[in-house]
Amino acid sequence: MRVMLIGGGGREHCLAWKISQSPLLEELICCPGNVGISSLARCLPVKETDLDGLLEVALQEKIEMVVVGPEAPLALGIKDHFAEKGIPVFGPGREGAKLESSKTWAKDLMSACSIPTAAYAVFQEEKEALNYVKKKGVPIVIKADGLAAGKGVTVAKSMEEASIALHNLFTKKVFGDAGKKVVIEDCLEGEEVSVLAVTDGKDIIILPSAQDHKAAWEGDKGPNTGGMGADSPAPVLSKELEQQVREQVFLPLLAGLEQRNIDYKGVIYAGLMVNKGILNVLEFNVRFGDPETQVIIPRLQSDLLELIVAASSGKLSDVSLRWTSDHALCVVLASGGYPAEYKTGYPVSGLETIRKVEKLLVFHAGTAFEKEKVVTAGGRVLNIVGTGSTLKEAYQNAYRGVGMIHFQDLYFRRDIGFKALPSSERMCSK
Ligand code: AMP
Ligand code: GLY
Q1: Which of 140, 183, 221, 283 best tests ligand 1's pocket when mutated (most atoms within 8 Å of CB)?
Q2: Residues 195 and 182 both lie in one domain
């Protein structure tokens, strides 16, 4: 099978690594790809949002399956666009992608399907929104309706923070049209967990849980990032809770999508808040998570491409997945300063050494080749993934790997996995 993968981050490197192991694969093409992916796939410099450019490549290369990493192409309607030429895309069409691209739409759907989620109201006027916040009090959560690269949410702890967030959205228009509508919702407490599932529209397979670490600094402090690390499985999601996620979240969601004639084949990612055994949905995404994928997929023993093909052709019931009982833990190595300003272009050393070590995987994100040497080229540079039969072992392997990589201004969090790891089992190698 000739497969095209879209994207160029750590998630896509991990997907490329797994797909390239499939006996079904004839050739993997990646647009645009990255340094790590270039040793697994043929990378072509087409932007992920250039749907016409991507279609041209897909036609030329006789692509038989398209796997989309990031949300933007799905929100733009790549599925619908490619369907006109008969090229299957693993993921929802533009309508289904609204689950991620419009928070208002997603909240209204959750409410219509009785999916547990924080109480909310939608506003298009700053004054009305501010009055609502004054009435509700703080803490309160303010969300831009549209896609904002993960930066559109403010958990406001003071009235001042809330009014600045509203002013930024409505008056300064920092997120442009994505902030035309604003969701204001009650602030929930608890522990966050990501639960990803694959569906063919009828059946659903829930993947092992994972926990992202979104804050830049240790102890979940500092600004939100694209993710500084992850571990899987997430102990907070007990077997009973997983059953509740199926019954209270995924099944009603699938029924709701079907009722609206939305043919959804792909990944549904539920970001959940769990508090004393009670779960609420914070958000849905319509794609694999980053960095959750980097800790979930290495635990999959079955063929990922077979799963993707089965889901895309409505035959998910034929598939049963095998998983290792291993744990996996990912530490993101970032450029110092990220998510604010940072410098790039620094040489990365240690990649050759780490490649030979068992139970360690490296997925590239912000790297580039410069005179045939790998240099830093983004905020999140590398994902170091350790595996092991216990969380402690996965944690130790990952941080041992972290100690092997060097570049100027290297920054990483030393507490990935600590929510699940007793303090007696912690160490750090740097
Ligand atoms: P979202 O993009 O909607 O997942 O929001 C990004 C982050 O904001 C989440 O991962 C949470 O940490 C936080 N968040 C979102 N909604 C809420 C909420 N209702 N209560 C508390 N925190 C929230
Ligand atoms: N890890 C968060 C996301 O993929 O959106």
Answers
A1: 283
A2: no
